[in-house]
């Protein structure tokens, strides 16, 4: 597996940035969360005048063997059908990305379908879906590290094209199940607090999902619970790729826009591998998937938005992006008390 060299952000810049923010023509703290974002982006870029270039969202798609156990109300075919929807520009993520000037890349991380070559589809297929982790591992060690490496390589290329702010999305029927188990093991929380309704399970469906995931965890009770082993055993190709992509983005000092429940689960693994990745993460929103609030709490993360969204695909990141721009713009463009000749006395 690729190793990553992630530097913590330069906290020396923080004092100078805080001074700059505090002397803008506004009451102290009056731009709230935008001030925190401006501070973070300035620290990531190690400058008092940060800039956002070529924003991108990468949507990783992969199928899950566990889907055949009835853990999602939707059939596995929806994964490949949604990939076509992404390529045709008709999905939620296409709409919000278009609106906000964000480029989208779609990646076949391991969909159970053979796509013909398409100029907008990155072929990084590791397999035709993972195996069911009910009675075995979702991925082999080699598959899991290949997925991490491919995610990293994709980000390296996007960064080389001039992008310095990146979000990650996912598509994979059944992947809220992977995310729930990853959360339970890495946050050390009971499975019941981590499992949600995903795409909309009813009470009976939720019971079934809980029974299946409980059985899977029981089967793997003796697993040596390192972040990598948890990912390999219960993850998905798209989740492993997002994990590698996040670690590489942090190594390259990019601003990372974290989306919802599944991408935050990928981040839990990434942070388990190197906690410095968290310095580069802006938490775009709190998803309505039950479990996301607790996940964010565990990460001491303050989500920018809480809109009752629970879609994935990177939609939360795309919707939050204009606010990141607002934060950077006020830092760069707003007058200071001194430059505007405004009296700085309460
Ligand atoms: C039409 C459709 C579009 C989606 N876009 C994202 N997801 C989301 O739902 C899936 C996870 O939920 P579960 O674990 O319940 O299957 C993922 O593919 C996720 O990205 C979608 C789901 C559907 C049905
Ligand atoms: O929060 C998410 O990312 C999410 C929630 C439900 C279904 N798909 C994605």
TrEMBL record:
<comment type="similarity">
    <text>Belongs to the CobT family.</text>
</comment>
<dbReference type="GO" id="GO:0009236">
    <property type="term" value="P:cobalamin biosynthetic process"/>
</dbReference>
<keyword id="KW-0808">Transferase</keyword>
<dbReference type="GO" id="GO:0008939">
    <property type="term" value="F:nicotinate-nucleotide-dimethylbenzimidazole phosphoribosyltransferase activity"/>
</dbReference>
<dbReference type="Pfam" id="PF02277">
    <property type="entry name" value="DBI_PRT"/>
</dbReference>
<comment type="function">
    <text>Catalyzes the synthesis of alpha-ribazole-5'-phosphate from nicotinate mononucleotide (NAMN) and 5,6-dimethylbenzimidazole (DMB).</text>
</comment>
<protein>
    <recommendedName>
        <fullName>Nicotinate-nucleotide--dimethylbenzimidazole phosphoribosyltransferase</fullName>
        <ecNumber>2.4.2.21</ecNumber>
    </recommendedName>
</protein>
<keyword id="KW-0169">Cobalamin biosynthesis</keyword>
<dbReference type="InterPro" id="IPR023195">
    <property type="entry name" value="Nict_dMeBzImd_PRibTrfase_N"/>
</dbReference>
<comment type="pathway">
    <text>Nucleoside biosynthesis; alpha-ribazole biosynthesis; alpha-ribazole from 5,6-dimethylbenzimidazole: step 1/2.</text>
</comment>
<feature type="active site" description="Proton acceptor">
    <location>
        <position position="313"/>
    </location>
</feature>
<dbReference type="InterPro" id="IPR017846">
    <property type="entry name" value="Nict_dMeBzImd_PRibTrfase_bact"/>
</dbReference>
<dbReference type="InterPro" id="IPR036087">
    <property type="entry name" value="Nict_dMeBzImd_PRibTrfase_sf"/>
</dbReference>
<dbReference type="InterPro" id="IPR003200">
    <property type="entry name" value="Nict_dMeBzImd_PRibTrfase"/>
</dbReference>
<keyword id="KW-0328">Glycosyltransferase</keyword>
């Amino acid at each position: 597996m690729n190793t990553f060299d992630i530097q913590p952000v330069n906290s020396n810049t923080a004092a100078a940035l805080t001074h700059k923010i505090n002397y803008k023509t506004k009451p102290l703290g009056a731009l709230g969360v935008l001030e925190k974002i401006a501070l973070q982006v300035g620290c990531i870029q190690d400058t008092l005048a940060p800039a956002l270039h070529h924003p991108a969202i990468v949507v990783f798609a992969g199928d899950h063997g566990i889907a055949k156990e009835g853990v999602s109300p939707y059939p596995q075919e929806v994964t490949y059908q949604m990939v076509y929807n992404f390529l045709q520009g008709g999905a939620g993520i296409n709409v919000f990305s278009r609106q906000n000037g964000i480029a989208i890349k779609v990646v076949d991380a391991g969909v159970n379908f053979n796509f013909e070559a398409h100029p907008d589809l990155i072929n990084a297929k590791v397999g035709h879906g993972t195996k069911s982790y009910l009675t075995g591992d979702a991925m082999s060690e080699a598959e899991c590290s290949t997925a991490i490496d491919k995610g990293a390589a994709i980000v390296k290329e996007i960064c080389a094209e001039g992008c310095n702010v990146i979000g990650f999305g996912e598509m994979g029927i059944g992947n809220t199940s992977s995310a729930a188990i990853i959360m339970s093991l890495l946050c050390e929380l009971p499975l019941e607090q981590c499992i949600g309704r995903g795409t909309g399970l009813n009470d009976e469906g939720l019971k079934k999902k809980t029974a299946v995931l409980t059985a899977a965890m029981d089967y793997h009770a003796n697993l040596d619970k390192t972040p990598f082993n948890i990912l390999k055993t219960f993850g998905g190709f798209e989740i492993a790729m997002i994990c590698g992509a996040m670690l590489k983005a942090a190594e390259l000092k990019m601003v990372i826009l974290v989306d919802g429940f599944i991408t935050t689960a990928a981040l839990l693994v990434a942070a388990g591998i190197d906690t410095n990745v968290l310095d580069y993460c802006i938490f775009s929103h709190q998803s309505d998937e039950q479990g996301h609030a607790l996940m964010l709490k565990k990460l001491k993360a303050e989500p920018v938005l809480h809109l009752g969204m629970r879609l994935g695909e990177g939609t939360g990141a795309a919707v939050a992006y204009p606010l990141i721009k607002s934060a950077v713009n006020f830092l760069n463009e707003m007058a200071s008390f001194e430059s505007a000749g405004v009296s700085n006395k309460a």
